[in-house]
Amino acid sequence: MTRVLHVLDHSLPLHSGYTFRTRAIMRAQAAAGLEVRGVTGLRHAADGPVAEVADGLLFHRTRGAATGPAGLREWREIGRLAEAIAALALDWRPDVIHAHSPALCGLAAVRAGKALSIPVVYEIRAFWEDAAVGNGAGRAGSVRYRLTRALEDRVVSEADAVFTICHGLRDDLIGRGHHAGKIGLSPNGVDLALFGDPPARDAALAAELGYAETDPVIGFIGSFYDYEGLDLLIDAMPALRAVQPGARLLLVGGGPMDAALRQRAAASPCSDAIRFTGRVPHEEVERYYSLVDVLAYPRKASRLTELVTPLKPLEAMAQGRLVAASDVGGHRELVDDGETGVLFEPDDPDACAAALADLLAARHAWPAIRQRARERVRQRHDWAHNIRRYQDVYHLLLTRRSNGKLSAAA
Predict the structure, then answer these.
(1) Cβ(306)–Cβ(260) under 8 Å?
(2) Dihedral of the CA atoms 231, 237, 240, 242 (nearest 10)?
(3) pTM of the model
(4) Which residues of 315-344 are buried (b: 16+ CB within 10 A; e: fewer)?
(5) Strands 96-100 and 342-344
(6) From CA 379, how far away is CA 318, in angstroms rounded?
(7) What is the CA radius of gyration of the chain?
(8) Which residues form the Glycosyltransferase subfamily 4-like N-terminal domain (predicted)?
């Protein structure tokens, strides 16, 4: 039985798109007969034991702290994680080390893998220098940006095989000179076993929010970052309500843009139609989903949104929800305009309003759109099938190792 050690920035029991993707991968691999464990680096900011079971999955923690000035601190962080990986590998004896971005995890895995002659797969979920820019924590072209990019290139070069979550990231790496044959694709996916029929409308919650049964509800459920474009969605509401007077906007979540978005909504002529719930417990989220007619994802055009596919639209499609999204590269890989959802021009509130109005007016088409969207997820994004992409590469690397030709994978 193949053993796979996943190297992670953070994991369950923390909740994020990152941890949910990890959970889906590890669960699907376990169901397919692989033995899996995870090990997290120093950035897993949650109290807990050194070995912790969450949702039936075992995660090991790297203890200690990395100190010093920027650069040296990260280098020490990589060293601590590499030591933790090696110690665990000597005890558990994994066949493959599967590291997930950021590159700090990747380089730690490469160090441990080379020392122990264990093949290393490195998976890129986003370029973290671009994510830092999108989150407002970094600046494009800065020294830190260039160093992070260089570190990513080094890990891609030294890993035995590489996966990206979408074509945008893969194409960018190839454009940097990395060999296409080394880089596989493992698209964002969902565990369809978790999604049955959409829940019935929560009448009690609707009454609490003041929603009539006939009010069309546009929703966003997630983190409030600037690149998500929620300011544009707020600005689209007056034009939308001009043709759909009962339309409501429900914003569930929080994040760096929370205060600014609330101020923007308060200044809107449609302020009475815009509701913020704040963050809600994970087990309560489905109640809010039940009220939403259309999930809106108005991401702004940027390097991050052009290259990276988000998880939320896939989850919405799997739940039988309608999706309206801006026409950026990450969304185009997920949504077929007019077939499985609608796309609209990014950074344009009027285009957003028009797309939402047209979709709300086409209620007769909703069942077919929902069915096509869920079928697309089933065919292309179900983890029960997508994990085979990993297994094929694992088998190839293990065959090369047994033949003494592991270096040929690099």
Answers:
(1) no
(2) -150
(3) 0.89
(4) bbbbbbbbbbbbbbbbbbbbbeeeebbbbb
(5) unpaired
(6) 11
(7) 22
(8) 17-189
Q: Are 274 and 237 in contact (CB under 8 A)?
A: yes
**What token pair was written down for 88?**
């665990």
| Encoded amino acid at 276, one letter | F
DSSP for 166-216 reads: SHHHHHHHHHTT--GGGEEE----B-GGG--SPPPP-HHHHHHHT--TT--
Closest by CA position to 325, among listed 233, 231, 224: 233
Q: Look up residue 344 and give its DSSP letter.
A: E
Counting other chains too, the contacts that 49-55 makes at CB distance below 8 Å and 24 or more residues apart are 52/13, 54/11, 54/12, 54/13, 55/12, 55/13, 55/23, 55/27
Choose among 408, 378, 379: nearest CA to 396: 408
Residue 401 neighbours by CB distance under 10 Å: 18
Q: 224 with 258: CB under 8 angstroms? A: yes
Structure-block tokens of residue 292: 């939403």
CA dist 128 and 121 (Å) reads: 18
Task: Kindly list the structural domains of the chain, giving each domain's residue range(s) and its CATH number in brackets, ordered by start.
Answer: 3-189+382-409 (3.40.50.2000), 193-380 (3.40.50.2000)
Q: Are the beta carbons of 209 and 250 closer than 8 angstroms?
A: yes
